[in-house]
Amino acid sequence: MRSDSMSTERPGHLMSRMCPVDWGEFTVDVAAPQDASAFLRLRDEAAGWLSSRGIDQWRPGDFAPSWLDTLIAEKRVFLLRHGEELAATVTVLWDDPFVWGEQEVEAGYIHNLIVARSFAGQGLGRRLLQWAEDHVAVSGRSLARLDCVVSNGELRHLYESAGYHWVRDGEFLAEFGLRPTALYEKTLRASHRHTAVPWSPEHLDDDH
User: Fold this and answer.
1) Least enclosed by CB within 10 Å: which of 3, 61, 150, 159?
2) Which fold has domain 14-194?
């Protein structure tokens, strides 16, 4: 899923405004151009795993490398690393007219929340989602939005248990046809703006 409109936020201000991480050996970095191939491998791994479970969320090879290059250049892609190993990724946009249309209220749009299968079962999906919410709040926005395919019940449960509220369903043209999509949003508490969450292995079966 992509947005055709990018934020005008000055890139030089991004690193100082990233929410800090205190997760032991895990670190969050902004993706660089040389990380593109690792991101695509991780996404294709997730797409294959979802397909094997009958969930038509993504398909291997459906993420355009040119769009990824744009997202990386705009510093919208974040990587969770364990040492030198890529453990997970998340993308945060400041608008998403393709899915949400033009919106008057500013929000952060969370995409591509992916945990490597080798790191599944450690609660990283929920923790990285919370980090993304903190990143949105640090920008001054009080609303986080995301979406997933309607049939992905486990992911919808994760979002709902994390405080997201269903807004509506819609159909959007993906690379492989119309994609029935559930749209969710969450109002962020003021405390998100000052949160640095210590690592703890809670919600161990929430990674998908």
Assistant:
1) 61
2) Aminopeptidase (3.40.630)
